[in-house]
Amino acid sequence: MELSQGNEIPNGETLFRYCLPSAFPQDQKEIPVSIFQIEKELSCDWKKFRNDPRTSHHVIEKRNRVISILVCDKIKNPTNPKRNGAPVPDWKQDIIYSPITAKEDLIHGENKAHSLIKGPKKIAICNIISQCSSWEDV
Questions:
Q1: DSSP β-bridge partners for residue 124
Q2: What is the pTM of this model?
Q3: Which domain covers residue 118, as residue numbers?
């Protein structure tokens, strides 16, 4: 399969999201859901194209706490925990490959690993993404 802009990223893949260590409250080990509370499009790097997250410009800019998100159906098709786990089609998350060209980002340049988690980021969805993630400082 040839990968191009807009292709869905399959389950089992890993995405990297970068943040400042100060985004975590002091001594907190759990990932704060606020890291995922973005309007509609959550920007990430796909591990397939950026095997080592330390090569990202984000790390150079001190966003060296790396959140590894496991792509899975639980994120793509979230359920409502307040409604016995019923699926909520309006909460669907599209996880797509969205590389950036040098012309699109004149400061950082090309990013072949860039990907997006697209869809509404309700608290329940942010909780699900957090549950499907781990973190490390690089």
A1: none
A2: 0.92
A3: 14-137
HSE at residue 107, side-chain half, CA atoms within 13 A, is 3
Token pair listed for 32? 């704060």
User: Dihedrals φ, ψ of 104, to 5°?
Assistant: -80, -30
How far apart, in whole angstroms, are the C-alpha atoms of residue 98 and residue 104?
12
Domain annotation covers residue 5: no
Q: What is the pLDDT of residues 69-99, one digit of tens each?
A: 999 999 999 988 787 878 889 999 999 999 9
Tally of structural domains, the chain: 1
Look up tokens 């599209």; give the residue. 94
CA dihedral in degrees (60, 58, 51, 29; nearest 10)?
A: 100
Alpha-carbon dihedral angle through residues 14, 18, 22, 26, given to the nearest 10 degrees: 0
